[in-house]
Design goal:
- This protein is an alpha/beta fold and about 270 residues long.
- The protein has a single domain, classed as NAD(P)-binding Rossmann-like Domain (Rossmann fold, 3-Layer(aba) Sandwich), CATH 3.40.50.720.
- Helices cover about 40% and strands about 15% of the residues.
- The protein is built from eight helices and seven strands.
- Helix 2 crosses helix 8 and helix 4 packs parallel to helix 5.
- The longest helix has 29 residues.
- The N and C termini lie far apart (about 40 Å).
- Bound molecules: NADP nicotinamide-adenine-dinucleotide phosphate.
- NADP nicotinamide-adenine-dinucleotide phosphate (NAP) binds next to helix 2 and helix 5.
Amino acid sequence: MTHSEARVGQVALVTGGSRGIGFAVAQRLLVSGMSVAILGRDRAALADAVARLEQAGAGRVIATAADVADEESIAQAVSTTVDRLGPLDVLVTSAGTSMRARRALVETSTDEWMRLVDANLTGAYLTIRNALSHMERTGSGYVITIMSTASFHSSANGGLYAATKYGVRALTESLIEEYRGTGIRVSSISPGPVDTSIWDRKLEPPTATERALMLHPADVADTVGWLLDRPPHVHVQDITLTPWVAADGSQARVGPDRHQPVPTRNPRRKGQGL
Ligand SMILES: NC(=O)c1ccc[n+]([C@@H]2O[C@H](COP(=O)([O-])OP(=O)(O)OC[C@H]3O[C@@H](n4cnc5c(N)ncnc54)[C@H](OP(=O)(O)O)[C@@H]3O)[C@@H](O)[C@H]2O)c1
């Protein structure tokens, strides 16, 4: 049996699965035959996502509504997943948020700091802690944290978001050492800009041209699938994914005329980072 065949019937919880990267991950795992629980706060969005995922997938999909920063509701959501689908094999933490606008630290508010820390850092901590307590019962599992290039590179005006992602990196790296050599693996994916609804919430959303230069949610989802297909003796710590933008700000065309660079502005230089 191949590793991807072994995934058929396994159970995954994908936080932030109602849209964006989490939705694409849920879709990818369902197509591979896994049973998937998606988690988010907005019940209507979850119901809509389940309806769309049911059309796409071979596996079973359920939704569980919770705020990842709420200790009781996240514990309940993880238990519900196990009760309804079976022992948890995979956790993908994709729930998260970003700054409404890039701002110098002195111009930021405590409210925005708490919003980011709650969703990105406390949320990852609570979700992982609860999922691991279930995985420890079976002695096996895979935790994949969706971080960001901001988890290792902080830039001017992006400090609040980066602080939360650096925090998730610290948690992830500690967990790798805590579980090294066991049946529980922990990895992370650190994407650059991905074209999702997270950008719609910006005070000044990127233009269509800028969005066209971003990664697609499926690029991250494919990477999750690739990680899960690694044999048990292989550990991948972190994968950085970025749009392929040349140093001069041009992007190579995909297709027959791919050797002709298209002049564009480099989204990173323009300060598009989350
Ligand atoms: N898009 C990018 O450019 C990019 C790049 C690097 C890293 N990332 C990271 O990737 C992750 C997913 O981002 P995305 O672009 O897919 O965002 P998105 O399209 O805005 O989706 C965010 C998801 O997280 C859920 N969520 C947010 N806050 C939550 C909370 N407190 N409790 C439970 N669920 C919550 C949302 O559902 P509800 O709102 O209904 O709760 C939604 O399902 C985030 O951690 C983000 O930092 C994104």
